[in-house]
Amino acid sequence: MVIKLYQQLALALGTWVIRLRISAMKLRPSKQSIKAGARVIDTAEMYGNGNSEQLVGQAIQNLDRKELFIIDKVLPNNASSDQLPKSLDASLARVGTDYFDLYLYHWRGGIPLPETVKALQDAQNAGKIRHWGVSNFDLADMKELLSLPGGSEVAANEDLYNLGSRGTEFDLQSWQVNQKIPFIAYTPIAQGDRFGQQLTTNRTIQAIAEEHQATPYQILLAWTIRSGNVLAIPQTSDPIHAAENVKAGDIEFTEEELELIDNSFPKPTNKQPLDIL
């Protein structure tokens, strides 16, 4: 039986659901987050043209690799049977590890999906990745993936999701729960003001933050992971915010608070195009 991402996280990290994404060209925040308790790190060959992966390698020096859960991603143009192994080896070398816990197909490109799936399976069989998944896939993409040979081995799908971008709630998230495929949210606090909605200055968010003695950013992050079915990737270049992100996992909302948030930021009532950054 395939070990899904949630099970792997439970074995390695307990109930940890907030993670660090390293894409900025600064090392201090990553070390601050790890010190605060973050043990799941998300990076990609695309971030800083490999420099982000090098920062990850520096940040995890002198740490027990078995206590970390490292996620990396391959670009669409590198997702062929010939190029994926080369890109994977280069990423492993930059991070300074023998394997990635999860390796994601960053978004769909021109290479046939069956070829990419086969290349990911080969990498897994070679022991260079523990699990593989996808990113920026909508429901139709996921259904197509599961129809392919080996497609059901997908361990996760990572999409844009936050209070200002709730489209995946309409069908994708519930479908993934039914299929037992973890949903990973990137940009979960929407940089505070995604889509011009001024999330951090919203009166409801500020009032709830005051009630919980938290920051608006912590409330936005806690809301993203409220269901227990979403893993979040908070990103910051501020070490203080990095530590605050970790503490957001302790926030629990009342039904009244969730209703107030829904009134300010309504749930989707129809299918929406997948938001991508």
UniProtKB/TrEMBL annotation:
Record-marked site positions (Lowers pKa of active site Tyr): K73
Protein name, as recorded: Oxidoreductase, aldo/keto reductase family
Binding-site positions, substrate: H106
InterPro entries: AKR (IPR020471), NAD(P)_OxRdtase_dom_sf (IPR036812), NADP_OxRdtase_dom (IPR023210)
Any Pfam family matching the protein: Aldo_ket_red
Active site residues of this protein: Y47
Domain NADP-dependent oxidoreductase: 31-263
Membrane-spanning ranges: none
Alphabetized GO MF terms: oxidoreductase activity
